[in-house]
Amino acid sequence: MKKIKSKNLFFYLFILPCVVSLTMVVVIPLIYGVYYSFTSWNGITTPSFIGLGNYIKVFSDKEFLNSLWFTTKFAVLSVIIINFLGLSLALLVTQEFKGTNLLRTIFFMPNLIGGLILGFIWQFIFIEVFYGVGEKIGFEFLKAWLSTTKTGFWGLIILTSWQMAGYIMIIYIAYLETVPKDLLEAAEIDGANSWQKFRNVTFPLVAPAFTVSMFLTLSNSFKLYDQNLSLTNGGPYNSTQMVAMNIYNTAFAENKMAYAQSKAIVFFIIITVISLTQVWYNRRKEVDY
């Protein structure tokens, strides 16, 4: 009994710093944020309570709603592309041939580059390299890649997919390497081809990887800010502005702190509902073995 109590004591002592840090950095600011979202606080004057005024204004704010729609389209498409690329790369580097470790390193390296730096790198590629290539081969659409909403949208998709695919690949590799080989051999003996083995054996067994990967890519896509700032800065005319940038500009460019906080609360609720729904749905599709 004494040993059990001492283990419990050490357990609580070890997690205490984490709990305190989490409370101070996340929980308390969240509570203050919810309070300020019901006020007219601008970061300087004393806040005054205005009730649901900020929230009513949020749902009639065309710029915020446009950025929310743009972010939603970006999130849906990037989740599909990143997970497809991540799984494809994982299937490639789990094959038995020389150089797989080198390929894993190469594919993962873009994830080590910071978001701002990555945005500036791809900005140079889209503006300078694409323009030069477009001028030589006569493709006009390559000359002004970030000057329109459509091409700016695809620029963000390309950047994010290139950065995240290698990270998601690592998650799929971890699950692919745990698939029992005897099941694959049994399926092969029964006459299953490569596609049938993947669809009926491998795919159901790596379902937990889809749950984790989709959650990470979905939450990351909705919260994207650094890449959006450095690649397009929301242009042209805020048409590629994502929600995180819209909230930041409302708070620090317009000094509407309470209004920005109400946007953040609404955004937080949307992300929470979508993420929990995705996890719940994917959990139902998982297979135990």
Automatic annotation (TrEMBL):
Q: Which GO terms describe its cellular component?
A: plasma membrane
* Record bears the keyword Cell membrane: yes
Taxonomically, the superkingdom here is Bacteria
- Any single biological process term in GO: transmembrane transport
Q: Does the keyword Cell membrane apply?
A: yes
Q: Where is the signal peptide?
A: none
Q: Which residues cross the membrane?
A: 9-32, 74-94, 106-133, 153-175, 264-281
The protein's matches in Pfam families, at most eight in alphabetical order, are given as: BPD_transp_1
Q: How does it sit in the membrane?
A: Multi-pass membrane protein
Q: Which CDD domains match?
A: TM_PBP2 (cd06261)
**Which subcellular locations apply to this protein?**
Cell membrane
Positions of the ABC transmembrane type-1 domain: 68-278
Keyword set for this entry? Cell membrane, Membrane, Transmembrane, Transmembrane helix, Transport
Tell me the PANTHER family matching this sequence.
BLL4140 PROTEIN
| Entry protein name | Binding-protein-dependent transport system inner membrane protein
The scientific name of the source species is: Oceanivirga miroungae
